[in-house]
Specification:
Distance between the termini: 90 Å
Number of helices: 3
Number of strands: 9
Helix content: 40-55%
Order of helices and strands: HHEEHEEEEEEE
Strand order of the largest sheet: 2-1-9-8-5-4
Oligomer: single chain
CATH topology: Nuclear Transport Factor 2, Chain: A
CATH class: Alpha Beta
């Protein structure tokens, strides 16, 4: 009987150890998956920003339209704001070259991605030269057709 008790106690210790090791392995694998997802999301955001700004650089409202959600809103540092149709008709910036995007802070909840970033760009907005390096905030929605900008805030001072 003593032998059975000792064997059962040993088996219980081994099972606890196996559970702890399995949990630790799952946590390690989970952490890697989160890191991979974060890197993948940042790469997707960079790709999307390139696409949006490539369309903006054309100055063609019909090339920009697919990137803007129907409810799109933009707010500028001078207090002016536009909905999608007004932006397409009146306020597409003139951009000299592809901007540089850095210091991205990205959060995602379902199909919504919020991006806070610093942007370096040579642009003219409504006839005024914009500050070359400035913070921006962009909110995207991921759809079956791709990413669309829902809202943007451009903090570049206009001169």
């Amino acid at each position: 009987m003593e032998m059975v008790v000792v064997m059962l106690a040993g088996l219980a210790v081994m099972m606890r150890t196996a559970v702890i090791l399995a949990f630790a392995a799952a946590m390690a694998l989970g952490s890697g998956a989160v890191a991979d997802d974060t890197a993948g999301l940042e790469a997707e955001v960079q790709k999307t920003l390139q696409g949006v700004f490539t369309a903006l650089m054309t100055g063609d409202p019909e090339k920009v339209r697919p990137f803007l959600a129907p409810e799109y809103q933009v707010q500028r540092s001078d207090g002016k704001g536009y909905d999608r149709e007004a932006y397409l008709a009146l306020s597409i910036p003139k951009i000299a070259a592809m901007p540089t995007f850095r210091d991205l802070a990205i959060t995602r909840n379902g199909d919504i991605v919020v991006v806070r970033l610093m942007i370096e760009v040579e642009e003219t907005i409504n006839g005024k030269v914009a500050e070359r390096v400035s913070p921006q905030l962009m909110v995207f929605r991921i759809t079956l057709d791709g990413w669309q900008v829902v809202a943007a805030a451009n903090f570049a001072r206009l001169e």
